[in-house]
């Protein structure tokens, strides 16, 4: 007996970016429960449609893969470019040296915002205070 796999969901008429150099775009995709099982053209996908398949017309809208699979802190990544990254500091003295170096790159009155230090790795075992700075 041959069991034919049918998709639970088929999306048609889409602008799918595959990021595959061999086949950069597609118009159809098929889903079986939570997994995309096929991305392709009409002929490739229509054979996966069964009596219980939900069909959604994407009306030419764009579909991009994979962004929900990643866990990122993109805001913090960007802020690390403008804030003083203290993650590698192993002591209060190292923090003070890093702040001193950053001061040399700033204009008078410009704020220095430091982040990402971990005082629990220091022998001092306390936060940086205004008096320290």
Query: What is the rounded distance between the termini?
Result: 77 Å
SSE order, one letter for each helix or strand: EEEEEHEEHEHE
- Overall domain count: 2
In the CATH hierarchy, what is the superfamily of the largest domain?
Urease, subunit C, domain 1
The main sheet comes to: 4 strands, mixed
Main structural class: alpha/beta
What is the count of helical runs?
Answer: 3
Spatial extent as radius of gyration: 27 Å
CATH level 1 name of the largest domain = Mainly Beta
Give the overall form: elongated
| Mean pLDDT across every amino acid position | 88
Regions with little confidence, pLDDT below 50 for 5+ residues: none
Specify the helix fraction band.
10-25%
Number of E-type strands? 9
From the 3D structure, determine the CATH topology of the largest domain.
Urease, subunit C, domain 1
Please state how the strands of the largest beta sheet are arranged side by side: 5-4-1-6
| CATH architecture tag of the largest domain | Roll
Strand content: 15-25%
Protein name: Amidohydrolase 3 domain-containing protein
GO molecular function, one term: hydrolase activity, acting on carbon-nitrogen (but not peptide) bonds
Organism: marine sediment metagenome
InterPro entries: Amidohydro_3, Metal-dep_hydrolase_composite, Metal_Hydrolase
């Amino acid at each position: 007996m041959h069991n034919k796999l049918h998709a639970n969901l088929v999306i048609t008429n889409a602008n799918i970016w595959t990021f595959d150099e061999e086949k950069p775009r597609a118009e159809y995709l098929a889903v079986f429960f939570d997994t995309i099982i096929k991305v392709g053209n009409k002929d490739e996908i229509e054979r996966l449609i069964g009596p219980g398949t939900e069909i959604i017309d994407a009306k030419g809208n764009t579909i991009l893969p994979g962004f929900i699979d990643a866990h990122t802190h993109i805001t913090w990544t960007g802020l690390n470019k403008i804030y003083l990254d203290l993650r590698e500091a192993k002591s209060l003295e190292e923090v003070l040296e890093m702040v001193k170096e950053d001061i040399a790159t700033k204009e008078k009155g410009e704020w220095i915002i430091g982040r990402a230090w971990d005082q629990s790795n220091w022998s001092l075992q306390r936060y940086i205070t205004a008096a320290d700075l």
